[in-house]
Design a protein that fits this description.
The protein has 6 helices and 6 strands, in the order H-E-H-E-H-E-H-E-H-E-H-E. It has about 160 residues and is α/β, with parallel strands linked by helices.
Amino acid sequence: TRISCPTWLHKCAQDCCQKANHSLTTRMLEHMHGKEAEIVDEIVNQIQPYLDYFEGKLFVSGFSEKCLRLFSKKLPQIPLALALSFVPKNPDLLSSEVGVDILHFGDEFVDDASLKRLKNSKTEFAVATVNDKKRAEYLLSNGVQSILTDNPKILS
């Protein structure tokens, strides 16, 4: 299996990030159990030429702890995010055990009780996918450090 990212896509991503002053988020999608090392090697090969350009604007997110650990050995300077389908009771303990910098949760899992718990956390966290402006503003005003959205102008 080959994962490729065409040159035009890199150029488009560079232009969009530069014009909009946004960071670039790359997701590592792991649906190939047993081929984690192959997947990580290919992703590393694809993004390595752009590391200087995206310095401070790039992180890798995934559901697979194995892929994230492999990735951290290849490019330890890139922050890692563990994507979850729940909000953990102790996010600091989980992020420490897994060795990630950021935790991602789907918006559907975030309620007021979890927001209170996360507010006291030292771990950075993000909520995905938030496409409603009022919801985005509410989350950001209640301790969420970042949102992932399909609309980069949502807060404009």
